[in-house]
Amino acid sequence: MADKNYSFFGAVEKSFNKAAEFTKWERGILEQIKICNAVYQIRFPIKRDDGSIEVIEAYRVQHSHHKTPCKGGIRFAAEVNQDEVMALAALMTYKCAIVNVPFGGGKGGIKINPKKYSAYELEKITRRYTAELIKKNFIGPGTDVPAPDYGTGEREMAWILDTYSAMHPGEIDAAGCVTGKPVTQGGVRGRREATGLGVFFGLKEVCHMKDIMEKRGLTTGVEGKRVAVQGLGNVGYNTAKFFSEGGAKIIGLAEYEGAIWSEKGLDVEAVFQHRKKTGSILNFPGAHNFDKSSDMLEMECDILIPAALENVINGENAPRVKAKIIGEAANGPLTPEADEVFIKKGILVVPDMYLNAGGVTVSYFEWLKNLSHVRYGRLEKRFTENLNSHILGQLEELSGKKVKEGEREFIMHGPDEVDLVYSGLEETMSSATHEIMDAWKSNPKIPDMRTAAYVVAINKVGTSYAELGIFP
User: Fold this and answer.
1) Are residues 192 and 246 in the same domain?
2) Containing structural domain, residue 208
3) 236 and which of 4, 228, 307, 359 could share a cystine (Cβ 3.0–4.6 Å)?
4) pTM
5) Catalytic machinery residues
6) What is the pLDDT of residue 168?
7) Are both 275 and 420 inside the same structural domain?
8) What CA–CA distance (Å, rounded) separates 157 from 169?
9) Which percentage of the chain shows pLDDT scores above 70?
């Protein structure tokens, strides 16, 4: 696992410093952008189901206030520490800037293994954590808006909302204090698969860039690409599913218990169900087993997608990676040392800080929905359907021909909430990809796509600070 001396925040700073040279900002402004504005470290006791008392360690970091509210997930994991939460909060700032989501970066973490606690204990921990955030004004629709992350989901977000609402009676925008909620509690359709779908949209855009693909000996488009995904959690599963639906071939899947490989291609849903039934990804019919999950990272493929935890590809194993494109679906899966290896090898790394921004983009749509108090599509769906139906009727009358039933349904369909969310996400990822590529092409000295992404982010955050007049 991770090297004891490895600092995730240090790695983020390293990437930042590398990119800062290609920007126009003076040192003081760069220092302000780089540091974490506020770090809140919390300890609180809870009573376990067996009657024993346990002290829980938790964090919330607000990295930047150049835009408010701050935004970032809350993870429940035994590995949570201050360095990790600070790094993830910093990445959130840059991520939001790149995809033009007007939030500052934040992140939270509770140092527990959620599998070792009952639902009742997890509820107590989540509600107490929320109460601690409220005490110090570290949560609220206009100050800091958490979301799910590793080890948390809709259930925990519903507990956070309920606790916040109970302590802020009558606050009309209370639902906007957290995103990733169940749809019945003000959540937005499409949020669950948003990060995986964003990874797919981002990589699809890259795959359509002729010059980028030709340099790596690949044809344009997603169809027929050989893809390997590490991690079958929410992000990995959805990424693999969308790639499969897009015509790619999923040839490798890895989880912490091991990995499987098949040149013929794997049925993602069947593998997922096999793991549910047997408790392991291994021994899937027709696939080759790897006992060590990390071995799959070194297999030959067109696109490798690490979608699990940070620091899985480092200076030690990077020279053995044979993929032509690496899409970082997880946060920080590559170390700066790995980046250097891939620059030399001509392997394209599509960086996490924008590629996995699907979650925060759709969280932004959810937050807007909560503040506007109206579901997307509610006002225009029927109008669009009636208009399309009328246009279709006129065309059929003028041409004397009937449109096929399947096509008729497609043309007449008015947008549902999920259609609008998917459309907004695709537009966001497409624009961000082109913005980063343009920055990279405009300066031949920029070594890789990650540095170009940081340059875009630093310029946007720097401009915000300058325009706010924070530096008199």
Assistant:
1) yes
2) 188-380+415-472
3) 307
4) 0.90
5) 107
6) 97
7) yes
8) 18
9) 98
